[in-house]
Structure formats: structure tokens, C-alpha cells
Amino acid sequence: MSQNSKKRLILIGAGSRGKCYTDRTLARSDYFELVAVAEPIEERREYIKKLHGIDDSLCFDTWEPLLAMPKMADVAIIATMDRDHVAPALAAIEKGYNLLLEKPAGATPEECRRIQRAAEERGVFVLVCHVLRYTKFFRALKDIIKSGEIGRVLSIQHSEPVGVVHQSHSFVRGNWRDSNETTPMIVQKTCHDMDILAWLVDKKCKRVSSFGTLTYFTEENAPKDAPERCTDGCPHSEECPFYSKKLYLDDKDNYWFRSTCTKLAAPTDEDIIRSITTTDYGRCVYKCKNNVVDHQVVNLEFEDGILATFSMSAFDEGGRRIKIGGTKGVIEGMLTNPIIRVHHFLDKSDREIDLDAQGADNINGGHGGGDDGIVDALRDVLEGIPNFSVCDIAESCDNHLIAFAAEESRVTGKIVDLEEYSSRF
Ligand SMILES: NC(=O)c1ccc[n+]([C@@H]2O[C@H](COP(=O)([O-])OP(=O)(O)OC[C@H]3O[C@@H](n4cnc5c(N)ncnc54)[C@H](O)[C@@H]3O)[C@@H](O)[C@H]2O)c1
Question: Which amino acids bring their CB within 6 angstroms of ligand 1?
């Protein structure tokens, strides 16, 4: 493909996710070309500028001047924080950009619907980053269900075992510790799961109920003699899984932790030390200003008598797990394990599907291969190639609303009827 016929991209927000997607478009540079970036943190902006060879005149410290310019690309990647999606999304849609938009699409149901309506009116495509849909694992589950092998699906048990350290990093110390500044757990982290359940059963969700609390990562669970910061000589550093020096400084291989705790694309050890001695990433996990649940359950009733239970928990090892019960058999699997097992009731036989043997992408790569998968799907969308994982913004918003409704149920203690709830927006 010649330089001129490549698909042009602009990036708004060059943080973890912005870098994740543009690293992948760079790996597909025969097709994609990043031509502009907007990012307030100079080091992150410069990193992207150099890596992609972007002209100085097309590097901005915020999205407004970039989107004030005439449309210069096919797609705007929007990877700012949750509450900073709606404004650049609406401005980019107005200019006629297609979007690769991080989830949650909007921080409220109203924002989601505003983006949906604007995109529908302008006739642009919004590909929301429901990355799980693009994994080999969930695509295989969808194929098995469609084949009829397990009969009619009637029940699903699904879980997102976030893991204690991931919870501490993102939802106690990190970006999403305060849902008033971002979005609640069920929207930020597990809108993926509401989306994947609705996609797998391909039915409307009728009702949800939810419980969830922040129970462990609170001051009353702090050891009596623990200081405010790990680096203030905490006597529990040896036995604490959250000791910041160990997580951020000693573990040199965890680029994700090193980069997010410093907000830098290429942090040095000095940057890490500065972070753990001055920012919340060095705070005792029991003494952070966090208000986000550390475990939550959701019950979902879909059309045609399909029931699903979902559990998100910090208190587990990590790696989404699912069991899908049909009238003829059951499917069982884990996102980070290449083996999917299908059990048949009739003859008690098992069939194993080995995703590795099928040449699956690295299932332990970003989101089980979903980060690569969605970039490939963006190409499909631009080329008009059918891809059964792709959904339009209307379906994405409907599925976001399941998450918002679950949060309403958690807060009010009431069962939420989705039809009534959705009619409000
Ligand atoms: N799809 C997924 O699985 C997944 C995973 C993690 C996070 N996310 C979502 O991705 C989004 C970004 O998360 P992240 O971890 O990359 O956060 P981040 O903080 O690393 O990145 C956000 C970036 O936006 C920049 N920014 C702030 N104001 C800006 C402005 N006015 N113009 C341009 N850029 C601006 C920030 O400086 C920062 O670099 C969030 O909404 C998050 O919920 C999605």
C-alpha cells in the first residue's frame, strides 16, 4: 500500500491505552499511519511524536486545537480518561472522523446516548474498545454457541477475578480509585463483561440486580503500625503483597505498572522512586482515598429465560472464567487458558478445543489478544470486511446501559428493569 493510500489516524490521549493501540497500528504500518497527537504530558507526546515521525506542527497539548483543524485523517483514536471521552468524541464526530473510542464510551448513560446520536446523524462509525469480543477465546465461545452444540443456552456463570494487586494498582491507588472522578467499577472495568454476556446470548437484557461493597481496602484493615507510605519504613514490607517498592521499582519487567505510576512512556528508576515517594502509588493501600467496590455480584435476566450471574472480585488470581450451560451441554473456559472444554449431556463425552493448536494469538497478550484483535477489526471496518465481533455504537450503548443499571441496583438495592431504565435516556 502506498504512503498516500494508507489509513490515517490521529491520537487523542497518549497514555497507556493510546500507546497500546498506536504500538499496534505501528506494527501494521503497511496499512495505518499516525499523523497527529494531542497529549498534555510532554514526555508522552514526544515519545509518540518520535516513534511515529509526526510533524511538530501536528503535535498538540490538548485535543481542542487538533480538532479545530480541518479533518486530516480517517480515524480519531480517543483514549483520554473516562470523563474526558464525550467532549473530544462529539467534536471529532462533528468533523466527520470515525472513532476508535475507549470504553466506557461515555461516563454516564446520557453521554453514551449523545455520542450514539451524534454518530448516527453524522454517519460515522464508532468502534468502542470492547476488546474481549476480539479475543480468540470469546470468538470461539460464540462460534460454539452458534453451532448449536450445547443446544439452547439457558444459564451462564461468568467472573472477572481482578486480583488483589491489580485492584490495588488501578482501583485503590490509581486512576480509578474515586468513582466520582471517573466511573464506578461495573462501568469502568466490567462493562466489558456486561457487553460480552449480551453478545454471547444475543438477547435483550430485561432485569438486573447487584450487590457490591468496598470492604478490604479501607483504613480499619491497616496494620496498626503501618505508616502512610510504604517507603516511610513500613515494618510489614516483607509480608505485604502491595509493598510499592517491590511492585513498582523492583519488578523491572512490569512496564504497565512502571509507566502508569509515573505517567511516562519511558520511565527511569529515578522517576519510579519519585512516584512512590510522592504520589498515591506509594501510599499504604489501606490509607488511600478510594471509594470503589472491591467485590461485586450482578444477576442478569435476559429474554427467553436466560439467566446469568456475574462476579467481580479483587480476591482472586485474575483471568476471566466462564461456564455456559445449554440444554445439550456445557462450555467451560478461562480467558488465559488455551483449552476450552465442551461437555455433552447425551453421552457424557468431552470435546477439548485447544486455541494454541489453532494458531491463536498470544492469549496472554493484551486482554487475551483483544488489543490486537480490535486493531485488526478497525481495519476490517474501514475496508468493509464483515467481522462478527464488531458492533455499532447503538449496541455498544445498550450494553453500557446494563452496566449503569447494575450500578443503580447496587446503590439503591432495587431490581432495575432495563426497558424502563433505558427509556430515561
Ligand atoms: N479497553 C480496555 O480494556 C481498557 C483498559 C484500560 C483502560 N481503558 C480506558 O481507557 C481510557 C484511558 O485509560 P489509560 O489507562 O490510558 O489512562 P491514562 O491516564 O494512561 O491516559 C489518558 C491520557 O489522556 C491524556 N489527556 C488528558 N487530558 C487530555 C486532553 N485535553 N487532550 C488530550 N489528551 C489528554 C492524559 O494526559 C493521559 O496521558 C480510560 O477511559 C479507561 O477506562 C480501557
Answer: 12-18, 38-41, 44, 62-63, 79-82, 84, 102-103, 129, 131, 175, 188, 260, 367
